Task: structure prediction
Amino acid sequence: MRVLLVLDHPYTLASAENVPHRRSFTAAVAAAAVRGATAAGHEVDVIDLAADGFSPVMTREDLVAWRRGAVVDPLVGDYQRRLLAADHLVFAFPVWWEAMPAGTKGFLDRVLTKGVVFAERPGAKGNPFRNLMPRLGGVTVLSVMTTPDKAYRWWYRDPLTKILFRGTFGKIGVGNLRWVNFDRVAGKTPEQRRRLLDATEKRFAALAPGRGGASARKGPLARGSSLTHSGT
Result:
């Protein structure tokens, strides 16, 4: 199975090691997922948005091309080719102001181009979109936050899943959607963080070679356990 992991953190994947002032728990989680999936024999492709210098801004030229089912940015075209080749998609990012960083939102805006990854069905009753990513069997979101998980789900009404699942991939028609949230990061001890990273590695080592992975459940939203390295 081909796993595409999209990392969105300014420190890049190079910050996965626990080096003071040069570390990111988000990057450590992404690295653990890569280790686990690789150990299971999957092919893992990593898009490191910050390392690539990806711009989240939809320019006028981008929007004109988007409406025509085309792209003007070679990096966006490269991301689309890699996305279309993926069997499972993973996002890893910190939660800032209760939502994803700009890079992830820009990935949705600029990479998910009409006519490339989805098609519109004019006059359709119900969902007006058709999925053009037949290989993509599931999406996993790995989010890192300082907000308590219960507060995020019940007070803020988990905007992440509304945007990424209900408003994007679920709308397109991708199933097996899983959210794994690492909450209250700053309060975790080094041992607690290590256990969380071990659990993440095991989670991705358990991915089956079928579409979406063995651990993914059917339905519009399958939530992982609430988990949570100092700093996002």
